[in-house]
Amino acid sequence: MNIHEYQAKSLLRDYGVPVSDGRVVTRAEDAKRAASELDGPLWVVKAQIHAGGRGKGHFMESGAGEKGGVRLAKSTSEAEEMTRQMLGRTLVTHQTGEAGKQVNRIYIEDGSDIETELYLALLVDRGTSRVSFVASTEGGMDIEEVAASTPEKIVSFSVDPASGLSDFHGRRVAFALGLKGQQVKQCVKLVRDLYRLFLEKDMEMLEINPLIVTTDGNLKALDAKMGFDNNALYRHDDIFALRDETEEDPKELAASKYDLNYIALDGEIGCMVNGAGLAMATMDIIKLYGAEPANFLDVGGGATKEKVTEAFKIITSDENVKGILVNIFGGIMRCDIIAEGIVAAVKEVGLKVPLVVRLEGTNVEKGKEIINTSGLDVIAADDLKDGAEKIVKAVKG
């Protein structure tokens, strides 16, 4: 789960990390009052969406004023006008894709006198199964761009959970960022505070870009992105309360309510599979035969007829789906339950695209009988290879 910048800044502030004072508004008429509560004389007006690259983004609609979702205002009136220009419009960045995201919140904060922009992040390194720090002197840029063009400017290391974090980790970050004097001491504290926040809130990613050195020589987190482990949200009611469902894919949101593992993709063949490994293999073989999967969908081993029905409805709600491949290997999951769910869903929402079904395992004959006697226009497949070939052929001709 991701949260907005203003929410991330609030968490950072609670853990002693220096950030600018700011106010969030959802109505343009509140912007002038919000800005007047801050010191000025420079205000930063930031569109709040779950995506990076806001400053370089552009708005789809006319009337949004100058380009970019991060702007500098020199008066409270100007801050209000910029808020009015951005609220309710669709911001497109390199992370949102062409569809962009609608701006429903604006964060207005005090401007900062910047001497240097740096980069600092914490993430879970799956290679080492540890929390890793990533630091670079190239703040304000996309870290992917830095990695591609100047990888030598990135320093990364993991923290051994047995020994835990020590001050030398903070000094290592400080030296990697070229800090000196009092800034080194500040960096040691910053690293310790961020690491504690990361662990206590079960984060997957914490990115500060840029981390700045102000003209008076102090460190400050000027921007922040945070992602949390969904599987751990049950023990963090305070974090779950920050969830903004308007920022999530409607299909993924619907799937989460039925405990379905669904991720929307850009392809044309919808997939319904049980088991994450089999789902990945199904996506791979679709690509092998010349098409692209429209989603990852694992209905799980204990799915009910109702869950399967909802899964099928979610797949068919995707306008990009030109065909559907159901690939079930019944172990814990029974093939007859899948078949009943498919039949119920088709009767409810209709079937406008080719449907290929491959069933194998527990109660497979009963499942096939349900499909065959349903009157549905279904293409049967003998195995995964056969199913992939048939759905790709049906979609591409």
Automatic annotation (TrEMBL):
<feature type="binding site">
    <location>
        <position position="117"/>
    </location>
    <ligand>
        <name>ATP</name>
    </ligand>
</feature>
<feature type="binding site">
    <location>
        <begin position="331"/>
        <end position="333"/>
    </location>
    <ligand>
        <name>substrate</name>
    </ligand>
</feature>
<dbReference type="GO" id="GO:0004776">
    <property type="term" value="F:succinate-CoA ligase (GDP-forming) activity"/>
</dbReference>
<dbReference type="GO" id="GO:0005829">
    <property type="term" value="C:cytosol"/>
</dbReference>
<comment type="subunit">
    <text>Heterotetramer of two alpha and two beta subunits.</text>
</comment>
<dbReference type="InterPro" id="IPR011761">
    <property type="entry name" value="ATP-grasp"/>
</dbReference>
<dbReference type="InterPro" id="IPR016102">
    <property type="entry name" value="Succinyl-CoA_synth-like"/>
</dbReference>
<keyword id="KW-0547">Nucleotide-binding</keyword>
<keyword id="KW-0067">ATP-binding</keyword>
<comment type="pathway">
    <text>One-carbon metabolism; formaldehyde assimilation via serine pathway.</text>
</comment>
<dbReference type="GO" id="GO:0006099">
    <property type="term" value="P:tricarboxylic acid cycle"/>
</dbReference>
<feature type="binding site">
    <location>
        <position position="109"/>
    </location>
    <ligand>
        <name>ATP</name>
    </ligand>
</feature>
<feature type="binding site">
    <location>
        <position position="209"/>
    </location>
    <ligand>
        <name>Mg(2+)</name>
    </ligand>
</feature>
<dbReference type="InterPro" id="IPR013650">
    <property type="entry name" value="ATP-grasp_succ-CoA_synth-type"/>
</dbReference>
<comment type="function">
    <text>Succinyl-CoA synthetase functions in the citric acid cycle (TCA), coupling the hydrolysis of succinyl-CoA to the synthesis of either ATP or GTP and thus represents the only step of substrate-level phosphorylation in the TCA. The beta subunit provides nucleotide specificity of the enzyme and binds the substrate succinate, while the binding sites for coenzyme A and phosphate are found in the alpha subunit.</text>
</comment>
<dbReference type="GO" id="GO:0004775">
    <property type="term" value="F:succinate-CoA ligase (ADP-forming) activity"/>
</dbReference>
<protein>
    <recommendedName>
        <fullName>Succinate--CoA ligase [ADP-forming] subunit beta</fullName>
        <ecNumber>6.2.1.5</ecNumber>
    </recommendedName>
</protein>
<dbReference type="Pfam" id="PF08442">
    <property type="entry name" value="ATP-grasp_2"/>
</dbReference>
<dbReference type="InterPro" id="IPR005811">
    <property type="entry name" value="SUCC_ACL_C"/>
</dbReference>
<dbReference type="GO" id="GO:0050074">
    <property type="term" value="F:malate-CoA ligase activity"/>
</dbReference>
<feature type="binding site">
    <location>
        <position position="274"/>
    </location>
    <ligand>
        <name>substrate</name>
    </ligand>
</feature>
<comment type="pathway">
    <text>Carbohydrate metabolism; tricarboxylic acid cycle; succinate from succinyl-CoA (ligase route): step 1/1.</text>
</comment>
<dbReference type="InterPro" id="IPR013815">
    <property type="entry name" value="ATP_grasp_subdomain_1"/>
</dbReference>
<dbReference type="GO" id="GO:0005524">
    <property type="term" value="F:ATP binding"/>
</dbReference>
<feature type="binding site">
    <location>
        <position position="112"/>
    </location>
    <ligand>
        <name>ATP</name>
    </ligand>
</feature>
<feature type="domain" description="ATP-grasp">
    <location>
        <begin position="9"/>
        <end position="239"/>
    </location>
</feature>
<dbReference type="GO" id="GO:0006104">
    <property type="term" value="P:succinyl-CoA metabolic process"/>
</dbReference>
<keyword id="KW-0479">Metal-binding</keyword>
<keyword id="KW-0460">Magnesium</keyword>
<keyword id="KW-0436">Ligase</keyword>
<dbReference type="Pfam" id="PF00549">
    <property type="entry name" value="Ligase_CoA"/>
</dbReference>
<dbReference type="GO" id="GO:0000287">
    <property type="term" value="F:magnesium ion binding"/>
</dbReference>
<comment type="similarity">
    <text>Belongs to the succinate/malate CoA ligase beta subunit family.</text>
</comment>
<keyword id="KW-0816">Tricarboxylic acid cycle</keyword>
<dbReference type="GO" id="GO:0042709">
    <property type="term" value="C:succinate-CoA ligase complex"/>
</dbReference>
<dbReference type="InterPro" id="IPR017866">
    <property type="entry name" value="Succ-CoA_synthase_bsu_CS"/>
</dbReference>
<dbReference type="InterPro" id="IPR005809">
    <property type="entry name" value="Succ_CoA_ligase-like_bsu"/>
</dbReference>
<feature type="binding site">
    <location>
        <position position="223"/>
    </location>
    <ligand>
        <name>Mg(2+)</name>
    </ligand>
</feature>
<feature type="binding site">
    <location>
        <begin position="53"/>
        <end position="55"/>
    </location>
    <ligand>
        <name>ATP</name>
    </ligand>
</feature>
<feature type="binding site">
    <location>
        <position position="46"/>
    </location>
    <ligand>
        <name>ATP</name>
    </ligand>
</feature>
